[in-house]
Amino acid sequence: MNTKSVISLTTGLEDAEKVTVAFLVSVGSAEAGRPTLMFLTKEAARLVVGDTARAAACEGCPPLEDLVRRYAEAGGRYLVCPICFDARHLDKGDLLPNAELGGTVPMWEWIGDEAANTFSY
Hints:
alpha/beta; 5-stranded parallel sheet; globular; Hypothetical Protein Ychn, Chain: A
């Protein structure tokens, strides 16, 4: 069985390079067949609302929308902090299909008793 990966991201498009790195790690994990969850807090909560995730962080960096698409195609999931989401007055109806609202308890439940690789950005 492949080890689960949890990538915690607090940054939104105000730091597109950091977001791109977090997505590159997430896409790599999911495309390798690992169960992968991105836990989005603070400004990162905006990244899974509609088509907000649009940026090219640097010359030669893949467009963020391509990474979002690849992550979904590889079975990657998002867990979005509901406090952060609501504080930004975002619409739950605009969440991407592979995103759901949930805090730390659902994150720990998803990890379960198995080992997990963790990354934080």
